[in-house]
Amino acid sequence: MTLKAPKVKTDASPAVENGDGNMLAVPSTATSAPPTGNINSHRNTYHSALSDTLANLELNDEKKKYDLRNEDLKELRELGQGNGGSVKLVEHTPTGTIMAKKIVLIDAKPAVRKQILRELHIMHDCHCPYIVSFYGAFLSDPNICICMEAMDKGSLDGIYKKIGPIDIEVVSKVALAVLEGLTYLYDVHRIIHRDIKPSNILFNSEGQIKICDFGVSGELINSIADTFVGTSTYMSPERIQGAQYTVKSDVWSLGISLIELALGRFPFSDSSSDDSDLSDLEGTLSPARPGSIALPPSRSLEERKREKDKRNKRKSKGHIVNEPAPRLTPEGRFPKMAEEFVDSCLLKDPDARQTPKQLLKHPWIDHARKSDFNLAEWASTF
């Protein structure tokens, strides 16, 4: 399916190029406030670009199944916040289909506007069992609503925080699914995800694992992308230092995510904690420097954990660049193949790090592919 995006001409707006070489106008970011008379003009131009984009998506969608209108979507509960908007679980009442509805304010900052247009095209064009399905989108002034597949078990971030460390067999299946998804995005659409982390890896009761949230993905015009985006605590050393981004940077983020799932906590952690047993982190990081601040004993356990997590993540950027890469430890707890796979994801030199496609041939991934571990059965345990 070839998607032809509309060309919108405006002297005041830079353009975002889509995969077909067409340009979509997006209001520019000015360092000073624009004249009052231009605000509505900019907003209307963007509104028009969105409307034309949505119309083209529908015209080119031979498999369209849903006539999406706000009044037909019954809100069930909120799923979360992020990337410029909120996400709600809804029921499409005419069909009974449960969906995730992402609501983004049209008047969001220009960078978010660009991401919305990008995300619409990417989601519409992606047809892969390892990527959340796109049902459609519509304007509901002042919002744009993007409807996608709902994954009833939620994110792996939420799962491990609920049940603790995730079985290494499940983690191997996660690695396989993410690598398959990243390889599809790059090989078929020349897209790199740029924000791989447990909260962007979703799971459902059927045992399916899919990646989501392409709000910070970029379509590659050249072989590399220079935009500094993504979640800094999962960023590769080269990106933190401002070097060019390649598909291998997603591999680093995957490696960090796999350790986090297997240990049940973020791998860059402060060893001087008095509220949990951090023996799982032995060897994942060089010894903590002196001067750690203990939290007041009067604070609740949950508050202390949240504060500790924030402190750890602030420190992690420096650790990522200056300290040895974390490892899947303690040694001997996990299969040797798993340790070697994670080590290969977390090579600091991006030239030495393999691509997702190359890693699909790793023995641990081959093991995951052949494994008869029942993910649906595992999903029924929580």
Automatic annotation (TrEMBL):
Pfam families xrefs: Pkinase
GO biological process: MAPK cascade
Highest taxon of source: Eukaryota
Annotated residues for binding of ATP: 102
Gene3D superfamilies xref list: Phosphorylase Kinase, domain 1, Transferase(Phosphotransferase) domain 1
Biased composition regions of type Basic and acidic residues, renumbered to the chain: 300-310
Annotated protein name in UniProt: Kinase
Region (Disordered): 1-44, 272-332
